[in-house]
Write a structure and sequence with these properties.
- By secondary structure, this protein is α+β, with helices and mostly antiparallel strands.
- It has 2 domains: about 190 residues, Fructose-1,6-Bisphosphatase, Chain A, domain 1 (2-Layer Sandwich), CATH 3.30.540; about 130 residues, D-Maltodextrin-Binding Protein, domain 2, CATH 3.40.190.80.
- The chain is built from 7 helices and 15 strands.
- The strands form 3 sheets. The protein has an 8-stranded mixed sheet with strand order 4-3-5-6-7-8-9-10, with helices on both faces.
- A hairpin with a 4-residue loop joins strand 9 and strand 10.
- It is globular, with a radius of gyration of 20 Å.
- The protein binds 2,5-anhydro-1,6-di-O-phosphono-D-glucitol (AHG) and manganese (II) ion (2 copies).
- The site of one manganese (II) ion has 4 residues, from strand 5.
């Protein structure tokens, strides 16, 4: 009989990787796991319950807020606020940080940045959505967390992960010692280790990009896409194009089978669409830990300076050799573009 290892058991086992750990990070991950199970419960009955559609608000990004966005945001904030390990939260759905100022959290060491529901335009059509989270050690010494606690490089993350609410619900996370994936077994209500030590192929045959924006892409991206589409037996081209439009789902697929995900600058999003703090940095941490790479086309994502909470960046993320090649195109053709 194969022995099941639950997320809780795995976290406790791995605590010994960090000699001075007192279990706070473990408890934080546990709290995130609990909130994500509640969100999964609502996602899986999205067609039955009164939670589909818009909440009737526009968020600070100017996008329609879905009811499930609001629900997920509330669940994660609630779980992190009572857990006692987190002193502030930054969320895609809140313009400012959420300061946790209660008795349990007065000695909390961590701040958490999150996209509570990623790919939310896909909820109404039964396509996978996700949650992304990123954990930093606070910089301030004590008391409630501050905005400055979030203004760190992605390289300072102590843990990051995502939950994908897909045909099964999975949590994938890293604490900087590899990437592990856990599948929710609904019969016992536990995340169980199903994908130990995940590694992404160095080279693959899938590219993921919203090609509807093609005319507005930088020349380097246009040329790279043409390269992906050319026929060449030696390099197994043309590659396949796969784009769900749920970042977590696209990146999860590419993490497992290999591939590159690109969200470049476009006319509508001149600085890129995705957010550095709670989308790109955590996904970059995971992909690097799995042997892949993440850049903005030129520079490593996790070394970018964060100047504001909702800052955007272009993203080139995935199999190392594919990211290198796409970045070579960016370097080569950005020169000619700049000269135009
Ligand atoms: P969110 O639902 O949190 O706003 O994120 C949506 C993101 C990401 O998940 C996805 O890859 C991308 O937006 C899709 O954008 P396009 O529809 O412009 O391709
Ligand atoms: Mn998102
Ligand atoms: Mn979102």
């Amino acid at each position: 009989m194969s022995k099941v290892k639950t997320l809780g058991q795995f976290i406790i086992e791995k605590q010994s990787d960090f000699p001075y750990a007192k279990g706070e990070l473990s408890r934080l991950l546990r709290d995130i796991g609990i909130a994500s199970k509640i969100v999964n419960r609502e996602v899986t009955k999205a067609g039955l319950a009164d939670i589909l559609g818009d909440a009737g608000e526009i968020n600070i990004q100017g996008e329609n807020v879905k009811k499930l966005d609001v629900f997920a945001n509330e669940q994660f904030i609630a779980a992190l606020s009572v857990g006692g390990e987190c002193c502030a939260i930054a969320s895609e759905e809140n313009e400012d940080i959420i300061v946790i100022d209660n008795e349990q959290s007065k000695n909390a060491k961590y701040v958490v940045a999150m996209d509570p529901l990623d790919g939310s335009s896909n909820i109404d059509v039964n396509v996978s959505v996700g949650t992304i989270f990123s954990i930093y050690r606070r910089l301030s010494l004590n008391g409630p967390g501050t905005l400055e606690d979030f203004m760190q490089h992605g390289t300072e993350q102590v843990a990051a992960g995502y939950v994908i609410y897909g045909s099964s619900c999975m949590m994938v996370y890293t604490t900087g010692k590899g990437v592990n994936g856990f599948t929710l077994d609904p019969s016992i209500g536990e995340f169980c280790l199903s994908h130990p030590n995940m590694q992404t192929p160095k080279m693959a045959k899938t590219y993921s990009i919203n090609e509807g924006n093609y005319v507005h892409f930088p020349d380097g991206v246009k040329k790279y896409i043409k390269y992906c589409q050319e026929e060449d037996d030696a390099t197994s081209r043309p590659y396949s194009s796969r784009y769900i439009g749920s970042g977590v789902a696209d990146i999860h697929r590419n993490l497992i089978t290999g591939g590159i995900y690109i969200y470049p600058t476009t006319a509508k999003s001149p600085k890129g669409k995705l957010r550095l703090l709670y989308e790109c940095n955590p996904l970059a941490f995971i992909i690097e830990q799995a042997g892949g790479k993440a850049t903005d086309g030129f520079k490593r994502i996790m070394e970018q300076d964060l100047k504001s909470l909702h800052q955007r960046t272009p993203l080139f993320l995935g199999s190392a050799d594919m990211v290198d090649q796409a970045c070579d195109y960016m370097k080569k053709y950005s020169m000619t573009e700049a000269a135009k």
